[in-house]
Amino acid sequence: MQPTHRPVISATGLFTPEDSITNAELVASFNAYVERFNAAHADAITAGEVEPLEPSSVEFIEKASGIKARYVMAKEPVLDPEIMAPRWEERPDEELSILAEIGVEAARDALERAGRDAADVDAVLCAASNMQRPYPAMAVEIQQALGIDGFGFDMNVACSSATFGIQTAADYIRAGNAKSVLVVSPEITSGHLNWRDRDSHFIFGDVATAVLVEDAAMTPAVHWDILGTRLKTVFSNNIRNNFGFLNRAHPDTADAADKLFVQEGRKVFKEVVPMVAQMILDEAERLELDPQGLRRLWLHQANAGMNRLIAQRVLGHEADADESPTVLDTYGNTSSAGSIIAFHLHSEDLRPGDTGLICSFGAGYSAGTVFVRKEG
Ligand code: COA
Q1: Which residues of the chain fall below pLDDT 70?
Q2: For ligand 1, atom 23: residue with the closest CA
Q3: End-to-end C-alpha distance for the chain, whole angstroms
Q4: pLDDT score at 257
Q5: How many domains does the structure of the chain reveal?
Q6: Are strands 180-188 and 123-127 parallel, antiparallel or unpaired?
Q7: CB contact at 8 A, 9 and 229
Q8: Residue 126 included in any domain
Q9: Residue 56 beta carbon below 6 angstroms from any ligand 1 atom
Q10: Is 359 a catalytic residue?
Q11: How far is the CA of 318 from the centre of ligand 1 (A)?
Q12: Ligand 1 touching residue 268 (CB < 6 A)
């Protein structure tokens, strides 16, 4: 017997910032900073008191990550070797916050694609790894801007925020507590990235996505059945950000690098790939789905090598771009939004009955799977 309330994905939405930074532009700015730093500390470097900084390279970035460019909300200050951080005018409280603004853009896109009136939405979950402030919740601000009568709250599970949000929304629908839930993931990751750190300065980009999770009874004819969701967390210090209101140091100061994103990239690679591949295989078995029969994988977009390995373990062969599309090359790592961008941009061509997997993984560690089947 079908359960009374069945959650589906009615539509997704995307907001992409206007400005993009190529690897060449990024490396030119980083290397200018390195030159200035080494010149300013020449005596101390000669005396062996300060380590000279090493330049970055376009070739390394592309080979190590698959990233060729990333969108940002504030290009000029990020590329200015004297600033190397996003900057914008602080807005008065009466104005929509920047994070809410891009979330609203993505949400409107999803609502329009579903042909849904905001008045029919019951809840907004702002699921992202970088909230602009602790309260009032970004979700409540987005809810108000869209004219939604109901409730909203923020949730942060780093790169897995969107899939955790989808399961939370699906559970509200299964329980009959809501019929239509917007999961909004505005990610201004340029704010948590240490643009002066050679090992990671190329990783992140800004974007916003939205996923409209609804009761099958009200969804448009073309939609995605949610076949099953699974979440997992395992504590690790290998991806960490110590920024918070209990820390006094300003994140821009050199001695406060741990108040921005830091990672042990190689350990992350080694530990997360097997964990996620196994989780996908276990969940496919639970759902009685043949993983090799999946038409497409929309994987978290952190690193092309990680995705290649995970896809291979799941599908049993090297996946091509059609089976495991990448948006890393143009968007970079957009934290929780990555797998949703991939789904949003590369799902229209699937046929009714085709199955696929949205999967995220990242800090925590955290990982989430959402198996879907196209209907209509
Ligand atoms: N430009 C040129 N060379 C660089 C460089 C840069 N920007 N950054 C590092 N290197 C060099 C290092 O100096 C090192 O040189 P050595 O071997 O001579 O000592 C070499 O490249 C390897 O450095 P390492 O940091 O170990 O690189 P890596 O190959 O592991 O790639 C990541 C780094 C971060 C791209 C990779 O580990 C990764 O993607 N891991 C997955 C984790 C992830 O993406 N997490 C995001 C959050 S989910």
Answers
A1: 1-3, 248-255
A2: 199
A3: 21
A4: 74
A5: 1
A6: parallel
A7: no
A8: no
A9: yes
A10: no
A11: 23
A12: yes
- Which tokens go with 301? 């977009």
Measured torsion, CA atoms of residues 83, 264, 278, 129, in degrees rounded to the nearest 10: -30
Is 351 contained in some domain?
Answer: yes
What pLDDT shows up at residue 251? 54
Tell me if 274 is assigned to some domain.
yes
Q: Which residues pair with 183 in a beta bridge?
A: 125, 211
Domain of 268, CATH number, reads 3.40.47.10
Burial-class residue 216 by CB neighbours within 10 Å (0-12, 13-18, 19+).
Answer: middle
User: Given 106, 159, 273, 310, which residue is catalytic?
Assistant: 159
pLDDT of 247: 76
Q: What is the pLDDT of residue 250?
A: 61
CA gap 127, 135 in Å, rounded? 14
Is the shortest distance between the CB of 308 and ligand 1 below 6 Å? no
- Alpha-carbon distance of 71 to 338, in angstroms, equals 12
Using alpha carbons, list the distances in angstroms from residue 278 to 110, 196, 275, 314, 340.
32, 35, 5, 8, 21
Strand locations in 171-282 (E):
180-188, 206-215, 223-233, 239-240, 262-263
Contact 164, 127 (CB under 8 A): yes
Is 51 contained in some domain? no
Non-local (6+) Cβ contacts of 288 within 8 A are: none
Instruction: Cite the DSSP H helix spans in the chain.
Output: 23-40, 42-46, 58-65, 75-79, 98-114, 138-146, 161-175, 265-286, 304-315, 328-331, 338-345
Is the shortest distance between the CB of 129 and ligand 1 below 6 Å?
no
Measured from the Cα of 302, ligand 1's closest atom is 44
User: Does the beta carbon of 303 lie inside 6 Å of ligand 1?
Assistant: yes
**What is the spatial distance between Cα 373 and Cα 22, in angstroms, rounded to a whole number?**
36
Q: Are 356 and 332 in contact (CB under 8 A)?
A: no
